[in-house]
Write a structure and sequence with these properties.
2 domains, Rossmann fold, globular, binds adenosine monophosphate, alpha/beta, nucleic acid binding, 15 helices, DEAD/DEAH_RhlB, hydrolase activity
């Protein structure tokens, strides 16, 4: 049975919190290879942290939104705007360009969807394009759109890889006001002249730092070159790496910049390591953890598709209720695994970094880094899947 090691040994050159480290990265450096150093992964959560550190100025009732949208917001169960919603909704309603420095968990999706839906409702001939890095994120945004736009005569379509292209072509031809797309399939449909970016009066680039990490920077430049010059541009990214600066300049005009401290920072997460001395004991140590009562909803990260698949086979063999999302799974398989995990039909979800970024899953009790991520920022993204919405979570990192 593993024991928590509570040694506290932060060196002065090391990050003392995720936010601090990310701030450093924003100022232009990025660690490419993460050292196998336990002190990076041991940190006690701060109990009693308030969900929002910034003061909220508005209620949803204050915003000049059409009554149906207001009631959809209420039906969704949102009572108070998150900081980014508080600050972003009015400028977007006014048509301003915006740079939102915020990551998943901040409520940024609603921060752009709510005002864009209102604007589209008032100008039904206009259209919005939302470009996101992953298929899962696209589906998540579409689900949220459907809730907010219910009964407003506004329609959306999803343009993502791994799904039937002909159906997407048919949907685009019906001219929905909102298109949510991942870069690869979007480029494909542009090149086939199915979709014309000149038709879109507002464009959202979401999770831009991840799109750049995945290698979509040239595609983004290509998309921007095709956009109408008169447009509303919204740019969301947790950080602005130097590579993105140029893109940003060519994308937005006279933007308002909003930076929010993530509601779900690692401060809500108890972080610790699990030491293994030889590779053979790794799976059995993991097994010992997973059978414990408190490991109710566990997200396990591997680094490669191959590694994740191997662990998936092993844990399935051991009788765990488990799903996996990685690049070698079809979109249908990924979505089914994700839904079963969200609905508590399985206890464990295995994932690679790319497949899991931006995912919003409630009540994850534990994040386990079975393999180290490539960068510290990936580590922060991983552990941010637990300890969300004011709850406490635990992150355990295997090190040898
Ligand atoms: P996001 O950062 O957009 O992925 O949102 C993170 C989570 O917060 C999602 O589950 C949203 O449904 C939820 N959320 C966003 N805004 C609010 C709000 N104002 N009140 C309650 N929950 C919210």
């Amino acid at each position: 049975m593993y024991k928590y090691n509570r040694s506290r040994s932060y060196g002065s050159s090391r990050p003392t919190s995720g936010g601090h480290f990310q701030g450093q990265r924003r100022n232009n450096f990025r660690i490419r290879s993460l050292p196998n150093d336990p002190s990076l992964f041991i940190r006690k959560s701060i109990q009693g942290l308030t969900a929002y550190e910034q003061t909220i100025q508005h209620s949803f009732a204050d915003f000049n939104l059409t009554p149906r949208l207001k009631s959809n917001i209420t039906n969704k169960g949102y009572t108070t705007p998150t900081p980014i919603q508080d600050q972003a909704i009015n400028p977007i309603l006014e048509g301003r360009d915006l740079i939102g420095l915020a990551s998943t968990g901040s409520g940024k999706t609603a921060a752009f969807l709510i005002p864009l839906i209102n604007n589209l409702y008032l100008n039904q001939h206009q259209k919005t394009l939302i470009i996101v890095p992953t298929r899962e994120l696209a589906l998540q945004i579409r689900d949220e759109f459907k809730c907010f736009a219910e009964g407003m005569n506004l329609y959306s379509c999803i343009i993502i890889g791994g799904a039937n292209i002909n159906r997407q072509v048919q949907e685009i031809r019906r001219s929905p006001q909102v298109v949510i797309a991942t870069p690869g399939r979007l480029k494909d449909l542009i090149q086939r002249h199915i979709i014309n970016l000149k038709d879109y009066s507002s464009i959202v680039l979401d999770e831009v730092d991840l799109m750049v990490d995945i290698g979509f920077i040239n595609d983004i430049r290509f998309f921007i070159s095709l956009m109408p010059s008169s447009r509303q541009s919204l740019f969301f990214s947790a950080t602005i790496p130097s590579k993105v600066q140029g893109v940003l300049q060519s994308f937005v005009q006279d933007p308002i910049t909003i930076s929010v401290k993530n509601q779900d920072t690692s401060e809500n997460v108890d972080q610790d390591v699990v030491r293994v001395t030889n590779p053979a004991e790794k799976v059995s140590k993991l097994h010992d953890l997973l059978v414990q009562e408190e490991f109710k909803k566990v997200l396990i990260f591997g680094r490669t598709k191959h590694g994740v698949e191997k662990l998936y086979q092993e844990l399935t063999f051991r009788g765990f209720k488990i799903g996996a999302i990685h690049g070698n799974k079809s979109q249908g398989q990924r979505q089914r695994a994700l839904d079963s995990f969200k609905n508590d039909e399985i206890q464990i979800l295995l994932a690679t970094d790319v497949a899991s970024r931006g995912l919003d899953i409630d009540n994850v009790t534990h994040v386990i880094n079975y393999e180290l991520p490539e960068t510290y920022e990936d580590y922060i993204h991983r552990i941010g899947r637990t300890g969300r919405a004011g709850k406490m979570g635990t992150a355990l990192t295997f090190i040898s």
